[in-house]
Amino acid sequence: MIPSVLPTYNRAPLHFVKGEGAWLTEADGRRFLDLGSGIAVNALGHAHPALVKALTDQAQNLWHVSNLYQIPQQQALADKLVEHTFADTVFFTNSGTEACELAVKMARKYFYDKGQPERVEIITFDGSFHGRSSAGIAAAGSEKMVKGFGPLLPGFVHLTFGDLDGVANAITEKTAAILIEPVQGEGGIRPVPDAELKALRQICDDHGLLLILDEVQCGVGRTGRLFAHEWAGITPDIMMVAKGIGGGFPLGAVLATEEAASGMTAGTHGSTYGGNPLGCAVGCAVMDHVADPAFLAEVNRKAALLRQRLEGLVAAHPEVFEEVRGSGLMLGLKCKASNLDVVKAGYDNLVITVPAADNVIRLLPPLTLTEDDIAEAFTRLDATARQVEAT
Ligand SMILES: *Cc1c(COP(=O)(O)O)cnc(C)c1O
């Protein structure tokens, strides 16, 4: 008999009932160190007092009004995002997937309104992940995601990750945009080198294309800058944001330049819940912390400490781990053992990591991780590796 919850997930037998900082308490009382943050969502950790206050204060007053009316919390969050980024304008969604939908629509509408309606194609890369909607799976194009779900949304050109020559050769009079994650998350924590992001920006400028960055996982302080592309010294035309921006409340956004957004006039797009008062009140509180240079300096300091411990871990367990990769607190351990076995052994040792493609385990801890947490992470991952070695 089919379970009452549609069985699309492979769930671990863990029932968390409470969270605090980087710690989760299981129903049986065991305390787990959370190095997954609900897949890069709990950017400020669990139950951060500022987020609890922002949410409960807002909940006392007003939960929802339609986007038919003014929403001051939404205005405030948009202003913060515009102030701290390349963007001139923001549309709020409830998820990364919806941000992908709008990014694709915005790019196509831009060229349509410019009198180039044939420019509909978007170049994407293997190993990418842009969500599970029809546009998202067509954009990523991996067999695992698209099989059985055809016909797919047309207009995506898939290239090999890192193949810059391929990009130059793939551009035609139909090309509208290049869509890329500055650091691939689901694909196995694969950072795009700064030089390559710069080159992609240059190619877009040379051919009049839009550069769309998917920072759903790598954005919001995760790599030690507010957004990952800042390391490369470039800016996109359109950017997808979600996960960390809501700190655990479902919230996403599309950020864009005035030019790239020029086709999105009144009535061309909308959302019932996107940018609702609860989500935006929390988003404002997240931004107030994460956009602070002192906060980001701490993220970088912690990231360096964690990375150093992980390098030691890999050196101590060459049969289990191959290398550390990633940026800031978006780290991956490429495994020699099965990554799923390592994640599972982690559960036995009360540490949570997240599997990714390419036999990698992801470490996406709360950005508020303490030095004690880092020491605990090492101890528990070391015990995890020993357990994997013994089996
Ligand atoms: C998670 C993710 C998405 C999809 O976001 P949802 O909120 O799950 O819809 C899109 N792009 C990237 C890079 C992601 O990591």
From TrEMBL:
Which top-level group of life is the source organism from?
Bacteria
Provide the cofactor list for this protein: pyridoxal 5'-phosphate
What's the record's note on cofactor binding? Answer: Binds 1 pyridoxal phosphate per subunit.
EC number in record:
2.6.1.11
Give the pathway annotation: Amino-acid biosynthesis; L-arginine biosynthesis; N(2)-acetyl-L-ornithine from L-glutamate: step 4/4
Residues where N(2)-acetyl-L-ornithine binds: R132, S271
**Residues reported to bind pyridoxal 5'-phosphate:** G96, T97, F129, D214, E215, V216, Q217, T272
Q: Which reaction does it catalyse?
A: N(2)-acetyl-L-ornithine + 2-oxoglutarate = N-acetyl-L-glutamate 5-semialdehyde + L-glutamate
Q: Where in the cell is it found?
A: Cytoplasm
Q: Which UniProt keywords apply?
A: Amino-acid biosynthesis, Aminotransferase, Arginine biosynthesis, Cytoplasm, Pyridoxal phosphate, Transferase
Please give the residue positions where the record annotates the modification N6-(pyridoxal phosphate)lysine. Answer: K243
Extract one GO molecular function annotation from the record.
transaminase activity
Alphabetized PROSITE patterns for the sequence: AA_TRANSFER_CLASS_3 (PS00600)
Main location as per UniProt: cytoplasm
Instruction: State the oligomer form and interacting partners.
Output: Homodimer.
Q: Family, per the entry?
A: Belongs to the class-III pyridoxal-phosphate-dependent aminotransferase family. ArgD subfamily.
Another remark in the UniProt entry says: May also have succinyldiaminopimelate aminotransferase activity, thus carrying out the corresponding step in lysine biosynthesis.
Name the chain's protein: Acetylornithine aminotransferase
Source species taxonomy: Bacteria, Pseudomonadati, Pseudomonadota, Alphaproteobacteria, Rhodobacterales
What gene name is listed for this protein?
A: argD
